[in-house]
Amino acid sequence: MKTKEELPACPVATAVSLIGGKWKLLILRNLKTRPWRFNELQRDLEGISQKVLTDSLRQMIDDGLAYRHDYHETPPHVEYGLTSLGREMLPIIDALADFGNYYKSIIQ
Amino acid sequence: MKTKEELPACPVATAVSLIGGKWKLLILRNLKTRPWRFNELQRDLEGISQKVLTDSLRQMIDDGLAYRHDYHETPPHVEYGLTSLGREMLPIIDALADFGNYYKSIIQ
DNA sequence: CGGAATCCATCACGATACTG
DNA sequence: CAGTATCGTGATGGATTCCG
């Protein structure tokens, strides 16, 4: 979790600093509905490497947006989901989806 | 402007492909209120280079989000603003700002 | 299954100089 | 003022190997 002093003054810049990178918004899009397992996420995001998925998830956890639950089973069973703070980002995902649909509807 | 075939199937991914990079969302935040001149934008974004600002603006124009109006004066006078399509992105900016404010309000 | 560790590639981004 | 043209670098992301 960042401290107040590390964050930009502008709220938009603050949010951007949390969802920066190529994949976090797409990860949020997936976690929106339910918890996901690691390999399940990687398969669905198609194109993301293990390293980048690991790094992205860890940053999101560190920022308080996501949680990691290890069931301590063999074979390993780990699930990732959104914290209540992470769920506060869902209006952003919804706005992105709305715009994406609109954009595709008007281009020829 | 991209064609339908170049865009991802997922609407969120479509939107992300349009606002990718480090600066476009911040540029949108500025253009939200009124048209801006080039140097004015560069000063306000503090940290962005001319090249990156030029590249970002050109992509946004190419994607139909922004326009460029050259007054053909000497000294040069050029203004950048949002198209009606670009204004459809404003809910995204608003959602980002809301979240940024909320995030800063709850961290200690 | 869910990673860690390592190495490598690319390109987004940045610095600098110059121009109509 | 509003760029263009070069050139350089470093963080981000990708490929591969190994492990409990």
TrEMBL record, chains A, B:
UniProt entry tagged with the keyword Transcription regulation: yes
Alphabetized UniProt keyword annotations: DNA-binding, Transcription, Transcription regulation
Protein's UniProt keywords contain Metal-binding: no
Protein name: Transcriptional regulator, MarR family
GO molecular function, one term: DNA binding
Pfam families assigned to the protein according to its UniProt record, in alphabetical order: HxlR (PF01638)
InterPro entries linked: HTH_HxlR, WH-like_DNA-bd_sf, WH_DNA-bd_sf
Annotated ranges, domain HTH hxlR-type: 10-108
